[in-house]
Specification:
The chain is mainly α. It has one domain. The protein has helices at 7-41, 49-74, 84-112. The radius of gyration is 19 Å and the shape is extended.
């Protein structure tokens, strides 16, 4: 019968998973805040639960796609960005991925689910 994992192993697993969790929470917060700003500015969209879900899910999808494509094109063989310009370019494109991806996905989601214009 196999031995249960030691305390050190469990602590190492928890410690390694903390940073992705913090990143996920921070990303959700930033996407939600950006969505609220976009919906406050857009004349036909209001801050509703379906709109926020569309926006946040779309933002995450487009940020993941950006990350995959950008690292495939500009990263070194080990997956890291080696120059300051590459890192700054990635951060600049993240802004467009969050806003653009959220808007496009919200627009498509509203059309697919036939949500009212004034909702």
């Amino acid at each position: 019968m196999a031995e249960p994992p030691s305390r050190e192993t469990l602590y190492a697993i928890r410690k390694e998973m903390l940073l992705p969790l913090i990143g996920f929470i921070f990303g959700t917060f930033i996407s939600s805040l950006t969505g609220a700003i976009v919906f406050a500015i857009h004349p036909n969209w209001k801050i509703t639960f379906p709109n926020m879900i569309f926006f946040v899910v779309g933002s995450f999808f487009w940020v993941i796609m950006l990350s995959l494509v950008y690292t495939k094109l500009l990263a070194a063989d080990n997956g890291t960005l080696q120059s300051t310009i590459a890192v700054l370019g990635y951060f600049a494109l993240l802004i467009f991925a969050v806003i653009g991806g959220g808007i496009v996905t919200t627009y498509i989601g509203r059309k697919l689910f036939k949500l009212e214009k004034t909702e």
